[in-house]
Specification:
Layout lengths: L20 E13 L4 E7 L2 E7 L15 E10 L14 E12 L11 H4 L4 H6 L1 H4 L3 H22 L3 E3 L17 E3 L7 E3 L5 H6 L6 E3 L7 E2 L7 E2 L5 H7 L2 E4 L5
Amino acid sequence: MGFVQRTKTCGELRAEHAGQEVTLNGWAHKVRDLGGVLFIDLRDRNGLVQLTFDPASFPNRLEIRSETCLSVTGKVKVRAEETKNPKMSTGDIEVIVTAYTVLGAAKPLPFPLSDEDVMETVNEELRIKHRYLDLRRSTMYRRLAIRSSACRRMREYLTVRDFLEVETPIITKSTPEGARDYLVAYRQNPGMWYALPDCQVLPRRELPRRPTARVHPARPGDVVRYPGRHPATCRGDDARCGQRLDRRVRLGEGQG
C-alpha cells in the first residue's frame, strides 16, 4: 500500500507550526460530524490533534469512524480564542485537511476506546478477547511505556558494567522438587511434556564458562559477589531478582 509518510507526529504540533503543510498518520480517536463541518481527533503514540474536514470537499467522509487508520495532509491553523482546548497539548491549533487516505478501515467497536470512564465498567473477558484494541488506550500505553523504560534502564546499567545478557529457555526439562511444575504438552511425542523452570540453575550450568566469567547466583542462601563490595547472602525474598540477574554473565577478572 502506497501512502505519504508523515512529516510530523500528532502530539508535537504547536502554534509556531501555523501555516505549515503537514502529513500525519494515526487512528481516528473521536469523530464528530456536525453537519456543516466534520471534526476528528487523530491519535498516535505521541498525542492527539484535531482535524477539520469540509464536508463539501469530502463526500466520502462517512467511511471514517472511530479507530479508522488514516494518512492525512493539511495545513496547521491557530484556533479562535473561544475554541482553544486547554486540556490538549495541541489545543491551540487544528489541521485543516486537504487530502486523506484510509490505511485501514474499522468495523463497529466492541467498546469505546476514547472514554476511559466507560472502559472501567467493560467486562475484562471482552477486553482480553479484543486485546489488540484494548492496548491502544492511553492508559494501557502508559503502562507499556513505563515497563519499556524500566527494562531499558536496567539493561543500560548492566551494559556499562560489562554484563552480557543471555536468554535462557522458558520451557525446559522438568526436575524433581517440591513445587508442582506448570506442564506444556509436547505434540510431536505424545506422553512427553515441557515444564516451566522454577530456577535457572540448569541453563546456568550449560553456559560456556570462561576463566574470566562471573555469574550471579539465583538460589536463596547463595553468596552474591558484587565488584568492590563484601559478599552478601541472597535472601529468600530476593530470589526472583536473583533469577533475573542469573541471565547475565559479567566478564571481569577472576572467577565469581
